[in-house]
From TrEMBL:
Annotated PUA domain residues: 36-130
Official protein name in the record: PUA domain-containing protein
Keywords (A to Z) from UniProt: Cytoplasm, Methyltransferase, RNA-binding, rRNA processing, S-adenosyl-L-methionine, Transferase
Cellular compartments annotated: Cytoplasm
InterPro entries, per the entry: PUA, PUA-like_sf, PUA_sf, RlmI-like_PUA, SAM-dep_methyl-trfase, SAM-dependent_MTases_sf
High-level lineage: Eukaryota, Viridiplantae, Streptophyta, Embryophyta, Tracheophyta
GO biological process: methylation; rRNA processing
Predominant location category: cytoplasm
Cited SUPFAM superfamilies: PUA domain-like, S-adenosyl-L-methionine-dependent methyltransferases
Length: 440
């Protein structure tokens, strides 16, 4: 991990302030411990004024303040003239030395949250609750959704998924761990939340300077290990110890789309996890569905979910097998399906492995295209942010089509569900790509 270089430390005093001070400077003067100032290099200011919250160490010229700030401390972020452009939370070891929380113009128009993390957390979570309410979440038909989506809800490093009366918190920033009790207090005020399950992303938090010994999953004493949810009218049992937060709410709208196009068709669901796409296909009238996954726990949940929804056992089969090996065997058996869905795990966790991951995506999709009847549909997904942000997925699919001897037409492109907002000033927050192809 790149370390923040040693920076010039100066004293921050009243006499160093210009005659006309900004709102943040005025508020900082009244902080009992003082507020350090992170000064950006010339030419490095605009991207952050435009809203990108991640101030990387290479953009920093110097730090003004004694004693120097510690990880988790509130700091001002200033341009080369030392005029504040906003404030955020400092990190002495991360490649991102500040996560901006509020800009100067926002503090000027509404100073309630200025330099106050407790008030800012409360305000941002309340705003997120209201946005989801306007999106119709939760509802009688869907009570599984994302409440906080990191930068998309302007709380970088914090994810909160709601599953019925359980809130699952995925923490991936040092500041989230520092303000754990304040976050839990805000969640606890939501009247339909009865349990909180805290799931720290240990590897990411270690890179953010958090001591691994201080990290452990926490949940309320009565929090269940499994719970039932409803999504688009379909009931699921989910494991709160399962992958990610326990359920992939980001694919909700894509799963519902599958239910609209599956009537009377044979469907193959590769990397099916707990049966989300498979059950939606059956709900939409699919003739029969085959689900493939390597995880025994996931397949047990998928089978249980089929029973919960009174699915005829003759219409659904879940098999434990590697997706690639299954597809190769199915080709030898001359099998094919009207609709094939492939939603593999993240193959490109970083840009460094993008080239090798591209080959894996190409090979998987080439096999999937060969299993799709000519004129049939392939829904293919990538949850790798590096792939989505690079914009190369369609080129990968074109290469896969050439390998398979098929021609493809793009019918639909989608991302995550609407409760997973993306901040356009931080496109790195986009990760899910879902593409529907006609294969001929």
């Amino acid at each position: 991990m790149k370390q923040l270089p040693t920076l010039l430390m100066k004293s921050l005093s009243v006499c160093s302030l210009p005659a006309s001070t900004t709102t943040l400077q005025q508020i900082a003067l009244h902080q009992p411990k003082g507020v350090a100032k992170v000064v950006l290099k010339k030419g490095k200011t605009q991207i952050f004024k435009d809203g990108n919250p991640m101030v990387y160490s290479g953009a920093v010229d110097r730090i003004i303040g004694r004693p120097p700030p510690k990880t988790g401390d509130i700091v001002l972020v200033a341009d080369g003239t030392e005029k504040p452009i906003g404030w955020g939370l400092y990190n002495s070891v991360s490649m991102f030395c500040v996560r901006l929380m509020q800009l100067e113009d926002e503090a000027t128009s509404d100073s309630y949250c200025a330099l106050n993390m407790e008030k800012l957390i409360e305000t941002r979570i309340d705003a997120a609750v209201e946005v989801r309410r306007r999106l119709g979440l939760p509802s009688v038909h869907t009570n599984a959704y994302r409440l906080i989506n990191s930068e998309g809800d302007r709380l970088s490093g914090l994810i909160i998924d709601v599953f019925g009366d359980v809130a699952v918190v995925a923490s991936s920033a040092a500041w989230v761990e520092k303000y754990k009790s304040e976050i839990e207090a805000c969640i606890g005020k939501i009247d339909y939340i009865n349990h909180i399950n805290w799931r720290p992303s240990v590897d990411i938090l270690k890179e953010d300077g958090v001591n691994e010994s201080n990290l452990k999953e926490m949940h309320s004493s009565t929090c269940p290990e499994r719970t039932k949810i409803v999504e688009n009218g379909i009931v699921y049992t989910i494991s709160l110890k399962g992958q990610k937060t326990g359920f992939y709410a980001d694919q909700r709208e894509n799963r519902q789309f599958i239910s609209r196009i599956s009537d009377g068709l044979r469907v193959l669901d590769l990397c099916c996890y707990s049966g989300g796409f498979a059950l939606n296909a059956l709900h939409g009238g699919a003739l029969n569905v085959t689900g493939i996954d390597t995880s025994l726990l996931a397949l047990e949940l998928a089978k249980e979910n089929a029973l919960l929804n009174s699915i005829d056992a003759g219409r659904i089969s879940f098999l434990r097998e590697d997706a690639t090996e299954f597809m190769k065997g199915a080709l030898l058996r001359n099998e094919s399906w009207d609709i094939v869905i492939i939603d593999p795990p993240k193959l490109a966790p970083t840009k460094k492995v993008l080239h090798s991951a591209s080959g894996m995506y190409r090979n998987l999709n080439s096999l999937a295209m060969q299993l799709t009847k000519r004129g049939g549909l392939l829904m293919t997904c990538s949850c790798s942010g590096a792939v989505t942000q690079s914009g190369i997925f369609l080129r990968i699919l074109q290469g896969a089509a050439s390998m398979a001897g098929r021609r493809i037409t793009v019918l639909r492109q989608a991302g995550a569900a609407c409760d997973h907002p993306i901040d356009p000033s931080y496109p790195e927050g986009a990760y899910l790509t879902n593409i529907l192809l006609r294969v001929s």
